[in-house]
User: Fold D-alanine aminotransferase from Siminovitchia fortis.
Amino acid sequence: GKIILGDQILDRPDVHIDLEDRGYQFGDGVYEVIRVYGGKLFTMKEHIDRLFASAKKIKLDISMAPEQMQKLVEDLVKENKVDFGSVYMQVTRGAAPRTHMFPKPASNTKAVFTAYTNVVPRPASQLENGVEAITAEDIRWLRCDIKSLNLLPNVLAKQEAADAGCFEAILHRSGIVTEGSSSNAYIVKNGEVITHPADHLILNGITRQVLVKLCKENGIPFVEKEFELKDLQNADEVFITSTTSEVMPVIKVDGKTVGDGTPGKITRKLQELFEAKIN
Ligand code: PDD
Assistant:
């Protein structure tokens, strides 16, 4: 398949990333994952806007217009004939002799934009049956609102989940549930959908933003407030959301059954509403 480097669409073997790219050495960059449904990029503008917002928060100048980036990525999806899949895109602060401080403007170091596509089906059986999760301490930094390349704590938490035969690790700071290692986390209690406020401790997921709208339009109470591990254990329903997982029911947390052990009613309703959005 083809990939994007800078403002060009190239064959993958023709693309070389420098050994001293700051993304590689420092995780000095930002990224996005966008879903492709039936050849169309879902909530693309929201993802590109968030990429630029993340870049701005780390003082990274992407030096490309969002409109040009959008066009390039749309062309890539067409060229690779992706029907159902995803696009991964990232921007790093570029290649320069390794030193922590930013490259000097005079060095003319440019941000490096790359993107490629994956063909992946929707996780149909997991969406139908639900998944299991563990809980883990949230050991990340205090700017989780930035979609940064530094994912080591997320990687460690996800591996802990995988080692336990689970799909996701739901993170908490001293008992306050923040989000999943690569998803947002929610409980349903007495008919209310409850999730952590979109502050600096979580990533404000695009799927989460879609959900806020769906809840509003359909009279489902959506409450952004802190909740605790014990609320997670006593929830009527638990689910997570992300670009790749959509609205994913969680039927067990730390080995303990949620509700009656099957995806809950409100979770099902939200899945239905989400499904209608992507078709
Ligand atoms: N992860 N929180 C974290 C820490 C995430 O990494 C993600 C997404 C989300 C959900 O965001 P969205 O709905 O915009 O996908 C929340 C992506 C999919 C990933 O890293 O693969």
Notes: The two ends are 26 Å apart (CA to CA). Residues 124-278 form a domain with the D-amino Acid Aminotransferase; Chain A, domain 2 fold (CATH 3.20.10.10).
